[in-house]
Amino acid sequence: MNRKELIDALATKTGSTKADADRNIAALIEIITATLKKGDNIALVGFGTFEVRKRAARTGRNPATGAELKIKASKAPAFKAGATLKAAVNGTKK
């Protein structure tokens, strides 16, 4: 499902216009981005948790030359699915 299909599905499910659905999705993305940028988590019980994970600095290799290179420490956004979502995807009851 791409963004356009998500907008259509949200508009149909909520009985709102596609423009309203588009604004709601854009707002949700902005809120999630801003919250993660601050280093906070967003926990939606049953659905999952959006969080920031820290990656340690490490040594890697250039695949073309085999030369070692240093990879800096970084932060990466992550999503951890909740039990209810996992059960729904697997077709089991929670």
Q: Would you kindly provide a written description of the structure presented here, covering whatever features stand out?
A:
The protein is α+β, with helices and mostly antiparallel strands. Helices cover 43% and strands 29% of the residues. The chain contains 3 helices and 5 strands, in the order H-H-E-E-E-E-E-H. The chain has helices spanning 3-14, 18-37, 83-90, and strands at 42-44, 48-55, 58-61, 68-71, 74-81. It has a 3-stranded antiparallel β-sheet. Strands 3-4 form a two-stranded antiparallel ribbon.
Radius of gyration: 19 Å
> How many helical elements?
3
Shape: elongated
Number of beta-strand segments: 5
Q: Order of strands in the sheet with the most strands?
A: 1-2-5
> How far from one another are the termini?
25 Å
| Beta-strand content bin | 25-35%
Quaternary status of these chains? single chain
Are there runs of 5+ residues with pLDDT below 50, and where? Answer: none
Task: Itemize the secondary structure elements and their pairings.
Layout: H1 3-14, H2 18-37, E1 42-44, E2 48-55, E3 58-61, E4 68-71, E5 74-81, H3 83-90
Antiparallel strand pairs: 1-2, 2-5, 3-4
Helix pairs in contact: 1-2
In short:
This protein is an alpha+beta fold. The protein contains three helices and five strands; from the N terminus they run H-H-E-E-E-E-E-H.
